[in-house]
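User: Sequence in, structure out. Go.
Assistant: Echoing your sequence, followed by the structure tokens.
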Amino acid sequence: MHEDKSITLRDEPADPQAAGGEVLYREMFRIAGNDFEHGGEAATRVKALLTQLGFPPEAIRRLSIANFEAEMNVIMYADEAQLELAVLPDAVRVTITDRGQGIPDIEWAMKEGNSTATPEMRARGFGAGLGLPNIKRNADEFSISSTVNVGTTVSYVVYANGRSGGDAR
């Protein structure tokens, strides 16, 4: 039996319709939990694709950081996940939906330094409690929802030409 409680944290975009435009390209990537050997492969493939498409290097850098952090969170904490990449005319939208333990306290998990990493994860160099905050910091739009013992969905958008509304964080 799972706890039927969903918690959502959302940063509202400056323009709610901005990242909802026409999808020019879409691809799905599967991420397997506990597969440290292949950690970062989806993020690397997305980076190569966006480079081929001519996406600006600074936006690719920010998206790559967010993708790597999200991918490693899946590998460490979930059974499996699907990463959906959607390339829009002026942005890239990523949605990662996992099946796993979920996050019981999103607000706590979003604070830098808070981590539930095991000693084994720490021995691999993970567990500094920076994953979710780094995703949010590098995205122009960010949302997360989670249900304990079901899974977590993280969505974020990176704009080609900088932050929506032009503000720098």
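User: And one key feature?
Assistant: The beta strands are 6-11, 25-32, 78-87, 91-100, 141-147, 151-159.
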